[in-house]
Write a structure and sequence with these properties.
Layout: H1 3-15, H2 38-52, H3 69-81
Helix pairs in contact: 1-2, 1-3
Length: 82
Amino acid sequence: MSVLESLENYLLTEIAVGLGKKTLGPDEDLLELGIIDSLGLMKLISFMEEDFGIRIPDEEVIPENFQSLNCMAKLVELQVQN
């Protein structure tokens, strides 16, 4: 499963439950749609760190990095390289 698929699956099954979404587009604005809120963001970061074996530094926890699946995938890839 790719990083993008893993993130989408987690969001749909753990964060966006009850919103009626079956899929998320890679460039959909998840913040604007209200799919990710502050509690959801903390859960998402924890998932990303555990699932991908990375650590997301506090300075990387900015809206731009969590706006879409593509943004999150890029963040993961950057942290894997470091």
